Amino acid sequence: NAGVTQTPKFRILKIGQSMTLQCAQDMNHNYMYWYRQDPGMGLKLIYYSVGAGITDKGEVPNGYNVSRSTTEDFPLRLELAAPSQTSVYFCASSDNLRTSRGTEAFFGQGTRLTVV
Amino acid sequence: GENVEQHPSTLSVQEGDSAVIKCTYSDSASNYFPWYKQELGKRPQLIIDIRSNVGEKKDQRIAVTLNKTAKHFSLHITETQPEDSAVYFCAASSIGGRSQGNLIFGKGTKLSVKP
Lengths: 116, 115
Known about the structure:
heterodimer; A: mainly beta; seven-stranded mixed sheet; four-stranded antiparallel sheet; globular; B: mainly beta; six-stranded mixed sheet; five-stranded antiparallel sheet; 53% strand
């Protein structure tokens, strides 16, 4: 049972480069999330999705884009990398929070991104 | 949108003592409040959660209380052990309405349990 899988685990980007952080889950969860965690700080919500074809901005969406073409995948795109985007990125998924069984958000192992 | 405030940012206790972490939220539509534990270099993991129709929930040494009127909820850890040392995050989410799925976290509390 893989759970939530993120790739890559580490990446160094130059300013202005672009990249896509991949996230896939095999739990058939409707809800998926992208967070960034700066050193010693909390988790800031970048984007989230409540189902395939639906995405919404979170607290800090500027500089990022997402898509949700399938239930399983929720990639995060950085178009023009900036030093301020240096962070650890976590993808998470959960079942529909309306249901009694679907409450826990499962996190991927994180992607450590450095922009130089 | 939702805003979650968490206090304290750091907490140091002696092994065996109790630890309490408090959070407040702003959106009265929020009705799901989980707590996550994150060990150094690892992913956050759920330790306990509570829904708005319940005032208190307990799981062994961990308990969470919720006061919907005051919009605050707290994590209580009793008989703390060194392995409880980690960063703890509270979060709030609405499981209905327009903002459902918007899981917002507090800034975290670094708990240190001294042997």
